[in-house]
Sequence to fold (998 residues):
Amino acid sequence: MTGPGRRSSTFTRLLRHGFTDASAAERLLDGAELSPVRNDPVLLEALGRTADPDLALQGLVRLLEAQPGASARRELLDTVIAAKPLRDRLLGVLGASAALADHLARHPRDWEALVTYEPRDLHPGVEEFERGLAEADDPVSLRVAYRRCLLSIAARDVCGTTDLAETAAELADLATATLRSALGLARAAASDDAALCRLAVIAMGKCGGHELNYVSDVDVIFVGEAADGADEGKALRAATKLAAHMMRICSETTVEGSIWPVDANLRPEGRNGPLVRTLSSHLAYYQRWAKTWEFQALLKARPVAGDLALGAEYVDAVAPLVWQAAERENFVADVQKMRRRVVENIPVAEVERELKLGPGGLRDVEFAVQLLQLVHGRADASLRSGTTLDALQALAAGGYVGRTDAVQLDEAYRFLRTMEHRIQLYRLRRTHLVPEVEGDQRRLGRSLGLRTDPVTELNREWKRHAAVVRRLHEKLFYRPLLDAVAQLPSGEVRLSTEAARERLVALGYADPAAALRHLEALASGVTRKAAIQRTLLPVLLGWFADSADPDAGLLNFRKVSDALGRTPWYLRLLRDEGAAAENLARVLSAGRLAPDLLMRAPEAVALLGDGDAGGLAPRGRVHLEQEILAAVGRAEGAAQGVTAARGVRRRELFRTAAADIVASYGTEAQPVEADQGALVDLVGGAVSDITAATLAGTLRAVVREGWGDTLPTRFAIIGMGRFGGHELGYGSDADVLFVHEPRDGVDEHEAGRAANAVVSEMRRLLQVPSADPPLLVDADLRPEGKSGPLVRTLKSYEAYYRRWSLGWESQALLRAEPVAGDEELGRRFVELIDPLRYPRAGLGDDAVREIRRLKARMESERMPRGADPKLHTKLGPGGLSDVEWTVQLLQLRYGAGEAGLRTTRTRGALAAARACGLLSEEDAATLDEAWVLATRVRNAVMLVRGRAGDTFPSDPRELAAVGRYLGYGPGHVGDMLDDYRRTGRRARGVVDSLFYGA
Fold:
């Protein structure tokens, strides 16, 4: 027995050497297996250098226990103590991998594979591994031999004999040798099938790229051809049997476990396609049906087993298709979309620990490198490597990636891949999650050489490298474009003009030469402004590329920068406020309207920030009226006052458009608004409030100049149509009625002249050409239309409606709401018209038939010649007219008895009709969806084209921009139009039932 003092001394030494359970370690050292060496300091120091001394000691004791006799145990111990290379390799493996310790316990003589290394053993290739697997004659013995070879790879890895790239290459070479052995076993089991066919195994993914993990699916594609004289059908069936058997040999679990899954899902049509195809069948698929990601996957294709000549034919045949992939429409967008989809599919609970797929993970590096290879590899064969690190080095050498960026990315990738290797090596399980248990993190940190405070250092280094990847992986694509037009230090390689042009074309720029000129103007020089632009532009270029019109985005950014570049706050806003730069990029590349509004007063860019001056939330009518009325009060004359009001209107229209665009596109800080109805309500309410406040300010300015504080007649403006319904779009006119009432003692003719003068001057001032958009005031819904007086007294309205009112006028009055002027007069006008628009007896059959007749005539007469009726947002099936007339018919018939229907808002009335049982929930949802979609399309057309329209644009780029606003990615314009038609068709079915009674 060891005395108390001795035990205390050993216990302390064990703790000092990195053991966490010193008591258990002390018991193992005192055991019979280690009794000959328990006092040897060499052993304790060697254990202390491992990733997990406790695990290494346990593994060594188990290995000694498994030896067949005392002499074998003595031989092992003597070798461990005497031979430092063996000691470091064996204990290093035992301290890093519980799974390989289990293998050694089951096969106790396999430790001898680590005793000596010939020079050729230091970096073995496929040939050496094939020799190591040569004696395997069944799946079980193949697994044992595979683990023995893996043991030697792991030993070189943990001892630092090989670096990350060499280890990954050795793992790929071992996989190649294993696939060949497995195929040999399958051929031996079915020699008749083997004689019928030629079968080539093409490695894909990390195996094809010569950069495999310890535990990973081995991705393959099979190519088969008939042997000389054999029937092709029979040959393909035979090849399929051989391929399936080979996969089972590697994948199935036996008493020795499995090797790794063989995954053939990268083949044409995935798991739904045939396992084996002929070369011509592969080519036919890739030429006609393949998606962008499939060409990206083929970057790493490499023949590894079976008929290597056939495999080489396959690779040679598909290579031209791979290097033409960047010419496909929406190529960059497709690749980036696939990357985003991968991130979105990570479980929320795992995303922070995901080493491979998460933000700043390995896949970010691989996607960025592959994207650049596909863009530039067609013209530069030096980039055509399937190995990520080799490709990154070639990209830097060719000037396609900045050297500093490449070095940082290389370092980060090596660290993250080494982390992944060490995590997998422990249990030989396929995982990319950083462990949560502190003990596992401690082992992982020590295996990476972090010994002072392994857990803290590990997390710090991991987060640092992940941050580097996050910062660089997208910028990698864009920064060299700036270097191509900037002055570079000597020794740096510049991206050639042609390579820059290729990259801009791949990003979707229609005029790459102009884009390069803009970049040169923005980023050249040694000023502080140019330096900040060089920092901002790589990120901005990516956001511009994520739009339907990158050229416009870049051009508009140059215009704004030219206007504001000398203003200190502008670049500081973009650089320091997280949301501002991305918000600006979205706004500038989404169409013409928002940039046009911004260019007229570029200082409005401050609204895009998240500081005190920023904020895209619309301001309410009261706040707007206060600001405009205060500005009018300070103005010298009506013209100056209305100019101030129009300036506020322009700024607020920009704020609303920007908020709409940002919510529709989504940003890193703000996801896409899922509720499309909420966006419609936001725009409709905000633009209506802006218009009402502008009219109130204009009215005050005109009255003040002509009559001082008091007009001879009370005057009110009644909003009609979309204005009264709080549903104005960006391109809507302001439909109104003007009503006045002479003040006591004022002659009615004098009052009438004053009211008409006010209206005329208001309309003139709101349309005077200026930097601000005009506001068209339309009074055509007044009694007698264009033939009637522009302004009437309240009594005149009462007389007209009592004697002459038509059915369509009652329907139009459903949207009437006072918006400016004398509030009391406006309230009395509403009291006057309520019995007309909500008749107590409802509507008779004749009135209903007349409304139906009017609508049918409007559809036939007003549809523009040549327009596609199914895509007309106003008059087409399920369009705005269909939904609004259906809702308004319900209001006219039932509004007197149902308070909820007495609203000017279409969606509000529709919800009220559903609540009181006038239509089913399903029908209400169908009509609401159609109305919201048609309104969104109209808003999109105005945002994109800068002018109003009721149909989808015919220009492909404008149509794509409308699609992007509506949430359709690149290449999905057809889906957008199909969805619109389908939505309209469903809504028209409801309209036929509810409105026409069909």
Remarks:
- The first strand starts at residue 197 and ends at 203.
- The radius of gyration is 38 Å.
- The chain is about 60% helix and 5% strand.
- Confidence is low (pLDDT under 50) at residues 1-6.
